[in-house]
Amino acid sequence: MSAKDFKQSVRTTPEGFHFIFNKIKEHHVFKNKSNHKQLPISHQLALTLERLGTNGNGASVGRFARSFGISEGSVVHCSRRVIKAINALEEKYIKWPDMDRCRKISQVMAQEGFEGCIGFIDGTTFPIYQNPGFDGEIYFDRKKNYSLNAQIVCDCDKVITCFMAGWPGSCADGSLYKEMAIYQHSHEFFESAYPLSHMLIPSFKAPTANKQINKELNYCISQARVCNEHTIGILKDAWEDLALEEQLLPQD
């Protein structure tokens, strides 16, 4: 398989695949305690990455069972194992920048007129495949989809430094921001959906946004924080099925 075909299938390069494999291969979830032998970890990883990179019927259990020549139950178990192992890496790779990194980000943002800014926050939604059976109406978002809300913070290099996900899609970004750990820390972020505070500067809303000076500030903010939109776009383009059906989620 060519490198191009490989990346199209599992959404990463061969080098990226081996990097992930080496990081998760020692996780206890792959230590078999039953008489039923697991698939090789590399196969489980490939299966899961391909599922995460497709959506709709393309990510169905049946299709992957036929493609890999395994049972539908094995598809589910493989997916859960890999997701659990990858989630265990969260604290190592998604972390708040240290002081040295904060200074470097601030220096970059100073060139755009926002010295002291070390990140941008925005909310997005990930559709779920059906109306939840319990309190389903609160998952119905403004785009008329059933979804989960995610608040994502990134830096100027499109590196995700903090996130919170899992709240119903109908929840307002400003309300969810107050539920995040970073709400208690003094840093600056920009988005008009969020309340002004000592650590966050939102863009102006109408009618005050109609004043010329406020228009100019909003323009500068939108130019600076477009990297957050790009970050979310990259995430969704690479992993089409981030809101997979419940059976794919890891369970204890």
Description:
- The structure is a single chain.
- This protein has 252 residues and is mainly alpha-helical.
- It has two domains: 3-90, no CATH class; 94-238, no CATH class.
- The chain is 40% helix and 10% strand.
- The protein is built from ten helices and three strands, in the order αααααααβββααα.
- A three-stranded antiparallel beta sheet has the order 1-2-3.
- Helix 3 crosses helix 5 (72-87) and helix 4 crosses helix 5 (72-87).
- The radius of gyration is 21 Å and the shape is globular.
- The two termini are 36 Å apart.
Task: Offer a concise description of the structure.
40% of the residues lie in helices and 10% in strands.
Low-confidence blocks of residues: 186-190, 243-252
- Please write the string of helix (H) and strand (E) elements: HHHHHHHEEEHHH
* Average pLDDT rating: 87
Termini separation (Å)? 36 Å
Summarize the main sheet: 3 strands, antiparallel
Tally of separate helices:
10
User: How many separate domains make up the residues?
Assistant: 2
Class based on secondary structure composition and strand pairing: mainly alpha
Q: Helix coverage percent of residues?
A: 40-55%
Q: What's the overall geometry? A: globular
Our Rg estimate from Cα atoms comes to 21 Å
Q: Strand-residue fraction?
A: 5-15%
Q: What's the arrangement of strands in the largest beta sheet?
A: 1-2-3
DSSP strand tally:
3
